[in-house]
Structure formats: structure tokens, C-alpha cells
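Kindly inspect what follows.
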Amino acid sequence: MVTAVDAATGEFRTFDRDSGVPLVQAVAASCAVPGVYPPVTIEGRRYVDGGMRSAANVDLAKGYDRIVVLAPIARGAGPMASVDAQVTGLVARVAVVTPDQASRTAIGRNVLDPAARAPSARAGRAQAKAEAERVGEAWTG
């Protein structure tokens, strides 16, 4: 599921395989950071990053037995709750994956710096190998 926010109304929207929206278009909308990347038009509406609503949109998983949260930014900003706060109280088995030290170093201070993409991807792949067992345990229990 990919998330976005209507730039005009603030309405939250999710895109999934049944939404009829091509994956590339949904991901582009979810990556449209206000002031950095322009909104993306889908079905006549302009959408921006779903992270404008929540750091991880964990509430979408409420009621599920198993949850894996991939949260590039774990802290909330302003009135947004942190990822830890969002998963607190969920009865599901939860695995939260946030960037480890090597990934944070690779990302650097500017998460939108194009020069950080390749080193960030390498660090993320290394972290994925290290996290696979823990995530697998949460998923299969």
C-alpha cells in the first residue's frame, strides 16, 4: 500500500493493487515532498507525500496480527507521533525497522540529497540482511 495526501484538501489516500492507479504513479505521488518535488496528478487530483500525515501511517495496520513497519524517519515532526508511539498498544506482532547507524551515516543530514542514494541503498541492503531474521520472527512468530 502506498500513501499520499491530496494537496488541495488534505484528504489522506491509499493506493493498492485494487485502486486502479499504476504503481509508478502512486509511488511518485508518495515521494512528492512539498517545496522539493511537485505534487503528482492522479485522477485529476494533485497528491503529495503520505508522510505529510504521519511518519509511518501505522494506523493503517490496526487489527492485523502481524506488522512490519519500514520507517526511514522514526521520529514524528510537530504534532505527528513517532513510530514507536504509533505501534504502542497494537496487539499484533510488530517489527519496526528504522535506519541503523551505517544507514544514517550514508543518508547524511539531507535525506533528499541525490548523492546519498547509492551509498544509502548499499547501507540499506546490508541492514536488511542483518534485520531479516528479526523481521521473519515477527512475521511467522
Notes: Residues 117-140 form the longest helix (24 residues). The radius of gyration is 16 Å. Strands lie at 2-6, 12-15, 40-42, 45-49, 66-70, 93-97. Residues 17 and 75 are 29 Å apart (CA to CA).
